[in-house]
Amino acid sequence: MAERLLKKLPGWSALKVTVSHQGRGPKKEKCPRNKGCRACTSFKGDFDIVTDKRIINRKGKDTARLKRAGAKKVVWLRSTLKGLKAGLKMSIRELRDSEGLVIEGNSVLEHLKPDITIFIKGRRHRLKRSAKAVQKKADIIIDSKPDIYPSRHN
How far is CA 41 from CA 18, 38, 50, 106, in A? Predict the structure, then answer.
């Protein structure tokens, strides 16, 4: 959906937000994606703002997808929950010369009130806690895998 929006919104930029839980906090939470990509562990401090084009344009990554779709600029914010508010403030400052901003990430709604919130219901059977909270705040909900064989009710 973010790509479709960016293709139709010239001059808009994109912010990809990844909230890290890996090995942080009192319970040393595990990475919610469990992919071993090191996005959750490879930065120090409470947040990291990535603008390096070599990283942003890395093939197969969400940031490259957003850039290819036509984003004027793409920023990747990697943050702990504690650093999210400050990281968002600084990231958005990086994108202030844009016509508008498409943000991809669930946790941002704890700190921002966007003009419109679109929730894409993914293919997962279980929603993450942050996704459930976003779904409640969404203006539009899109099911990315609609049930093509709805159950029959007699």
Answer: 11, 5, 14, 19
Say if residue 5's pLDDT is above 70: yes
Q: What span, in angstroms and rounded, lies between the C-alpha atoms of 108 and 110?
A: 5
Angle 127-131-137 from CA coordinates, rounded to 5°: 135
- Give the CA angle between residues 132, 137, 142 to the nearest 5°: 75
Count of C-beta atoms within a 10 Å radius of residue 134: 22
For residue 144, what are the contacts with CB-CB under 8 A and spacing of at least 6? 120, 121, 122, 123
Q: Which two tokens stand for residue 72?
A: 């004027």
Q: What is the pLDDT of residue 25?
A: 47
Distance CA 79, CA 70 (A): 25
Residue 99 CA: distances (Å) to CA of 6, 9, 39: 11, 8, 29
When the pLDDT of each residue in the chain is averaged and rounded to a whole number, the result is 82
Supply φ then ψ for residue 121, to 5 degrees: -75, 115
Neighbour-count burial for 53-85, b at 16+ CB within 10 Å, e otherwise: eeebeeeebbbebbbebbbbbbbbbbbbbebbe
* pTM (two decimals): 0.80
